[in-house]
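Pilot study result, target chain (379 residues):
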Amino acid sequence: MSAETTPDPGIPGGTGTTGPRHRAQGRRGRPRGRRRTGLTVLACTAAGILVLGGTGAGYLYFKLNGNIKSVDIDQALGADRPVKADNGSENILVLGSDTRSGGNKSLGGGTDDGTARSDTAMILHVYEGHKKAVVVSVPRDTLIDRPECTGTDGTTHRAASGVMFNSAYATGGAACAVKTVESMTGIRMDHYLEVDFSGFRKLIDELGGVKITTTQDIDDPDSHLNLKAGTHTLDGEQSLGLVRTRHGVGDGSDLGRIQLQQAFVKALVTQVEDIGVLTSPKKLYDLADTATRTVTTDSDLGSVNSLMSFASGLKSLSASRMTMVTMPVQYDPADGNRVLVDEDKAEEVWTALKNDRAIPGSATENTAAGGATGVVATS
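Predicted structure:
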């Protein structure tokens, strides 16, 4: 079955779900408007910049190698994992990290103690042939059962029930995040990519901004974003405002923010597709230098040569060949700030990916939505 034969559910302006959000009464968690999210929108394209950087700066590969941070996911998780797909497809967990240490501190994101946190997760499934892909966003506010896992530092963490999805990363870092995703989906994550907050902003600026069109005004003091309806070229700071805003659009939920993130991903991919017009070796090196400093990878991708090889396999992907969906969820009737996995519909998503097929439209029908579909147009 071709991935093109099924309409793209969940794309902003496409066939995403609709319906009002019903907030339940109960204790509200601390305000999250200032918590930086959406950082992962850059990770799946940062590696592609390395290919372009290499065309004019091959002799600098060894210098770039020293920038890349990597974690040994395979050693931490051992053999008790889903089997690798044998159909030519690949699955990559893309996370955003947010810490108040270093460059992030001045930007106000992350935790006060300098530890990292992930607020956004995307599962990138690249179909056989590497010409099409689907991105499944996992809401950070989803209540899940977190499995026992061993962090990359060797510490074993007990299983926990009814905890937020992003607690996996906060508890045990990259390895526990991968373990949790594999437990939820039954799908082996072939690779791991993480992008950090301060690097995101810098790389957007070095790209010359990202062009988007808003179909309505967006005004959110919490994310410092004020955009009138129309076309804008967003710099790094504005881009962060767009992908982290939750009060300026839709129902004010994390789901609405995800819809904006998904639209921004497509705009960003288009921007990177046009990077070929850059001819300055220094410009290309600066992009590659920032990209390698921004990402953390699994150990299999922990070198420029490995990232080059990986990115070369994604060169055929374009925005028009990327489907964006959100993991099927329903609002938690006990707490309007949380969502629960819609198990039956989520299984439709995971089964499709396991079989390298398009996600059926039925998987996203009548699920919780953020009400921000169509706020950002990227055509």
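One observation from the pilot: Residues 254-273 form the longest helix (20 residues). A full batch analysis is planned for the follow-on phase.
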